[in-house]
Amino acid sequence: MSGRGENAGSASSEWVTGSAPQRAALVGLVTSSGGRTEAEQSLAELEGLANAAGAEVVLRFLQERPKPDPATFLGSGKVELLRAACDEAGADLIIFDNELTPAQLRNLERETHQPVLDRTQLILDIFARRARTREGQMQVELAQLKYLMPRLVGSSAALSRLGGGIGTRGPGETKLETDRRRIRHRISTITKQIADVKRRRAQLRERRQEGMTPSVALVGYTNAGKTTLFNRLANETAVASNALFVTLDPLIRVVRLAERQEILLSDTVGFIDRLPHGLVAAFRATLEEVTEADLLLHVIDVSNPEHERHIEAVNRVLGEIDAQDVPMLLVFNKWDAVTADERLRLKARAPAAIPLSAQSGEGVDELRQAIMQRLSLETQRVTLEFDEQDESDRQRIARLYRHASVRSHHATEGRVSIEADIPRRLLGRLTAVPVR
Ligand code: GDP
Ligand code: MG
User: Fold this and answer.
1) Distance from the alpha carbon of residue 270 to the mean position of ligand 1, in angstroms
2) Cα 306 to ligand 1 centre (Å)
3) Residues of the chain whose pLDDT is less than 70?
4) Which ligand is nearest to the CA of 221?
5) Which atom of ligand 1 is nearest to 52's Cα?
6) DSSP state of 53
7) Distance CA 92, CA 81 (A)
8) CA atoms of 176 and 55, how far apart (whole Å)
9) Residues 6 or more apart from 382 whose CB is under 8 A from it?
10) How far is ligand 1, taken at its centre, from the CA of residue 176, in Å?
11) Which has the closest alpha carbon to 97: 170, 145, 38, 152?
12) Residue 341: partners with Cβ closer than 8 Å, 6 or more residues away
């Protein structure tokens, strides 16, 4: 079985991998005279998304028009032009920057003789490719089904596309050919399963809190280098023995920063600009890691000229999921790809940010130090006194042995004196008796 859950769709068997990249044409609309820059920026982001989905962009097409044509989105003359341009450029896929109605989608496919996708479908496709947790996969399938449901009316032309290209993964064609009742049934089944997985995740979280291991989540724009940094931190310092988290969630690792200084590190899907609103809700579960983290690492690709805009987009999503108050460290990634001048400018703008290269590993040690500092993982040596006969004191001693580094232990006449190095963040919880 591939990464998808046993009921998470028959689609995985239909996935085609390893084929040549698809050649995509991007289409956008300029609705006002001043809107051109905005439309171009939006199209640049769409290109990033198309690349993330494995397509190569061979054509960009903008039309000025106050509002979309209800039947074909572009004016009919423009559709003809688009078709000719696609032939010329050898495009085999057309991606619209806006959301298309079912009718527009059908008409455009008929008139251009090319598969047509809109922005939402493209984003869903990327999530489908990247979702690795069972919950993430189910959330993606749910969002895909909900999106496709109204598009089932009347025609199956847009949905019966065969092959393994972009936009065809997800709920399989066979499923789409069956009636809407089955889809509704599937939606309710997945919804129940998601609730189940959520409950299990909550239990997992409780265990983490009991363990008092702080959690750190990577956030950042698509392509910022989160997964590269995750792998670097995890591979260099993963605690191999802790299989629990690996099996329950492949996106979480126990990472040891120094002796007795461990964190739970989680990778997340990339945040993007203009995430369609329904999707924010659908992916909330994936983002729970973020809301509940003790620290966020905001990974920024500073070699991208658009990185200021990406930072804003990420902060906006953090606000939407109520994570704006979680402590955050800025990570300036891809430092290797930045000129000396630009480095000076970036350092002046954000002196506290950690410059590094997740790819080469340069600067990653400094990041480890900064994480330890921010989480108060550094230890403080204290001496504590306990009553050996007291049950709650005996429990405190056991906790101390679990979470601190005991230097000496003296027992005389029923009194126990323990000297230990305690992580600062746990001082309050581990030293319920006065510190000498
Ligand atoms: P994610 O979408 O945030 O998870 O980003 P990935 O970790 O998948 O990385 C996106 C791309 O950036 C990949 O092609 C990486 O090889 C590249 N990349 C990541 N870190 C660095 C870095 O430090 N320097 C350079 N030059 N490229 C990097
Ligand atoms: Mg990633």
Assistant:
1) 12
2) 15
3) 1-20, 33-34, 129-133, 152-180, 201, 203-212, 236-251, 260, 269-288, 432-436
4) 1
5) 2
6) T
7) 15
8) 24
9) 419, 420, 422, 427, 431, 435, 436
10) 36
11) 38
12) none
